[in-house]
Design goal:
By secondary structure, the protein is α+β, with helices and mostly antiparallel strands. The chain is about 40% helix and about 20% strand. The chain folds into three domains: about 290 residues, no CATH class; about 120 residues, no CATH class; about 55 residues, Arc Repressor Mutant, subunit A, CATH 1.10.10.410. Strands 1, 2, 6, 7, 8, 11, 12, 13, 14 and 15 form a ten-stranded mixed β-sheet that branches. The chain is elongated and about 90 Å long.
Length: about 475
């Protein structure tokens, strides 16, 4: 066991979901045709004046309330001065000493299986930079700039150095992504660059923190995990050899799976922060905090606890539901419909049937069609009816799969489809014996294999029967009949 102790802090950026950019009325649509959503304000033309996007401030307040942070009585914007080709003004409008949110905590105990609550230092609001694209033109490497993203509202959350493994860092980042999506303030889509991570990693032999290296612009959970693990090992190796860690900014080379030195780490004075002269200071009293608090939905951790207590679901069972707020709400509606039909609490078996079909067959069918639950015609009431029919063995699982596709497309009640198309399950043993005898006669080889002790051979025979019946039978009934018929 290593005598060195790693410490990790995260800085997480997420683009906020607003109609317009942070300080102008250009559409907040970075993926549109390059350099079409731009104006003199977000391009930094001389003489232009920015105007604060109120919706972005309200989104930040919701984030702060969701992590038990304190909304500052007064907050302001500052100029962060540094030159880079994706900053057309030559500075970034950010927040320095008076952010919107200070403090907070994010409990990830349930996900880690151990007590762990990560403290938050601050959450501030700034404008995003433009997007650099690197290409080769006639053998010459060039860099192109798309200013569509420049000036879009960007949240930055800074954690305390409270994490001590890559696993904790990834779980923390994933939970924050979920919270942002539940709040509806950001899509936080990593593939589209809407969420990015900077990881501060240090390793020490004692209680004092070691010298940290900052790994910039990690754009996936896999990159975050790999980069933190690599950096812990790199610093540990240096210390074990008697070397010294340099404070620096490093990048992640995904192809080589290693961090690489980029520059010495800047301090706040290097950015020459000063209050943004074109924007007024703001006060907490200028926003309806209680109204915003009431707009916050049940958040992932609270939903996990309730689902575990109310439905008896394990963390693994509910993980897919919790990841998708739309699906978790739909699940509750379907269970509620079941209970209304039964006029009592739904049994654990019915609840788990609902969960299984929703997260497997229904989710798969929706993915195949490229639509969401809200875009389908499948109602929670119809799903409850389907689960009831499956539970009562009125239809087979094979028929249920076909019904799901029809229900998604048409919105019809499953009982109506079954009645109109004669899809009810055939369980009459007398009526099935004739088919069983026919299949046994036509398939002597698997019959002999079964007689020799090859249990799997009987599944072939059951498959033949199910195909002949178009899935309209209970495989367990067929299995019983085949075993009785084969002596």
């Amino acid at each position: 066991m290593s005598k060195y102790f790693p410490t990790i802090g995260l800085e997480i950026h997420a683009e906020l979901r607003t109609k317009t950019k942070m300080f102008c009325d250009c559409p907040n649509s970075p993926d549109d045709k390059q350099n079409t959503n731009v104006c003199p304000v977000c391009l930094g033309h001389p003489g232009t004046l920015p105007v604060i996007n109120k919706k972005a401030i309200e989104s930040m307040i919701k984030i702060g309330l969701s992590i038990s942070g304190e909304i500052n009585e007064n907050f302001k914007f500052d100029r962060k001065n540094y030159f880079y080709p994706d900053l057309p003004k030559g500075y970034q409008v950010s927040q320095f000493d008076m952010p919107i949110v200070k403090g907070g905590i994010l409990d990830i105990s349930a996900l880690l299986g151990m007590q762990k609550a990560v403290k938050i230092n601050r959450v501030h609001l700034e404008e995003d930079a433009a997007k650099l694209m690197h290409a080769t033109d006639k053998g010459v490497e060039v860099s192109l700039v798309d200013y569509n993203r420049g000036g879009t509202p960007l949240m930055e959350l800074v954690s305390e150095p409270d994490m001590h493994s890559a696993e904790e860092a990834v779980v923390f980042a994933k939970e924050l992504q979920l919270i942002l999506r539940y709040l509806g303030v950001s899509d936080a889509d990593l593939e589209r660059g809407q969420m990015r991570f900077d990881a501060n990693v240090s390793v020490s032999a004692g209680k004092e923190l070691g010298t940290r290296a900052e790994i910039k612009n990690l754009n996936s959970f896999g990159a975050l995990e790999s980069a933190v693990n690599y950096e812990i090992q790199r610093q540990t190796d240096i210390l074990e050899e008697g070397g010294k860690i340099n404070q620096e900014t490093r990048g992640w080379d995904d192809a080589k799976k290693m961090t690489v030195s980029q520059r010495s780490k800047e301090e706040s004075h290097d950015y020459r922060y000063f209050p943004e002269p074109d924007l007024p200071p703001l006060t907490k009293d200028g926003f309806d905090i209680e109204k915003l608090r009431l707009e916050i939905p049940e958040l992932p951790d609270a939903k996990r606890k309730r689902f575990g207590e109310q439905f008896g679901l394990s963390l693994e069972q509910m993980s897919v539901l919790i990841q998708d707020r739309e699906m978790s709400n739909y699940f509750e509606q379907a269970v509620s419909e079941l209970e209304a039909d039964l006029q009592k609490e739904a049994s654990v078996e019915r609840v788990k049937l609902t969960l299984n079909y929703l997260t497997s067959d229904i989710k798969g069918a929706l993915m195949t069609k490229g639509i969401s639950l809200n875009q389908s015609k499948l109602t929670a009431e119809n799903l409850a009816d389907l689960v009831d029919m499956i539970f009562k063995k009125e239809i087979s699982s094979r028929v249920a799969k076909d019904l799901i596709v029809r229900m998604i497309d048409t919105g019809l009640d499953p009982r109506e489809i079954v009645k109109n198309e004669g899809l009810s399950q055939i369980s009459d043993e007398a009526g099935l014996n004739e088919l069983v005898a026919k299949i046994i006669k036509e398939n002597p080889k698997p019959v002999e294999d079964y007689k020799k002790g090859k249990e799997q051979a009987i599944m072939f025979l059951i498959g033949k029967a199910m195909a002949a019946l178009k899935g309209r039978s209970n495989p367990e009934v067929l299995k019983k009949l085949f075993k009785e018929a084969i002596k």
